[in-house]
Amino acid sequence: MLEIKERRQKHFLRDLINAMMYLTETNCQW
After folding, report:
1. Cα–Cα distance between 30 and 28 in angstroms, integer?
2. Nearest-angstrom CA–CA distance, 22 and 15
3. Which of 13, 15, 19, 11 is nearest to 3 (CA)?
4. Whole-number Å distance between alpha carbons of 20 and 27
5. Would you place residue 28 in the very low, low, confident or very high pLDDT band (cuts 50, 70, 90)?
6. pLDDT at residue 30 is higher than 60
């Protein structure tokens, strides 16, 4: 169970970083 939680956290962090990068890219395009 702990392994799954850790894996989920890593995915969440990666998705969050990807989302922030995407937002910054779109903001730069403005």
Report:
1. 5
2. 10
3. 11
4. 10
5. low
6. no
